[in-house]
Amino acid sequence: MDRTSGIELIRTTGRTASERRTLERDVRRGVLERIRPGVLVRPGALDELHPGERHQVMVRAARHLIRPRDVVSHESAGVLLGLPLVGPAPPKVHLSVLTTTHTRVTSWFVQHGVGARPPWTAESMDGLLVTTPARTAVDIAASRPLDHALPVVDHVLRAGSASRDSLTTELDRLVAARAKAGIAIGMGSGLSGSPAESVCRVRFRELGTPEPVQQHTFQRSGAGPAVVDFWFPAQGVVVEVDGRGKYEDAEMLDGRTTAEAHWREKRREDFIRSFPEVRAVVRLSWSDLMRPDSVRAELRRAGVPCR
Prior knowledge:
Elements: E1 10-11, H1 17-29, E2 33-36, E3 39-41, H2 51-62, E4 71-72, H3 74-81, E5 93-97, E6 104-105, E7 109-113, E8 121-123, E9 129-131, H4 133-143, H5 146-159, H6 164-173, H7 178-187, H8 195-207, E10 213-218, E11 226-232, E12 237-242, H9 246-254, H10 258-273, E13 280-285, H11 286-289, H12 292-302
Parallel strand pairs: 5-7, 12-13
Antiparallel strand pairs: 1-3, 2-3, 4-5, 6-7, 8-9, 10-11, 11-12
């Protein structure tokens, strides 16, 4: 069970006037919080949720207003399908609407008219129609920046929830923004191990670096292999992307402490540096990836050419 399913949504619709006045008093007193018109939650109910989970709650809150033929799409479909969300959650729920070709924004929804491009759909666990992973990835690639879109495209390829052929088929059906979406689809790689690695690949493209080898293995007899995120062989540079949850994940998975995880990582880096072809190891954090100038400075310092 995910963390959002246990959050109680208190609706004012259908209540008596007296009950609605009581709920409004509770909002003013801080006993309840309003997350959408007519939808309340207990104080702090959303505080521990990441942006994708918060948006899942918004989709649940809008459930009663979604018509049977409307299809949850774009980033809203992404969070329901478990695809990575880079950047803030959308403030409104995205739907693909079969009966129009125009996009309309309401207080609750961004309604995308699909016209001659009706989506192929799948049922979600809540009974809502949701665009397929391939359609969702292409819709996001057509409407969002590349550093938001590529993590989604890489994820569906890595997970096997969409094939390159299915992505290309959906891309060919696009009427607008085909060139924009085609960049993300063309760059898609099932080798990216995390959204951070996908964003890093976008930064390499923006900075005009040589094309690195993904998931390169360093190995010698008598020692276990070390697989690195990126390897620039001509420059002898390894680039590793440190996800924000790296050490916490290590602790949760096998009981090691943070100090032990750091020690193991140091041993691993020493092993990588012991290979004569490795001149430098560059580590980039999520914070670095959000600042392209920092990435450029680190790469140039290590000898990787950038524009």
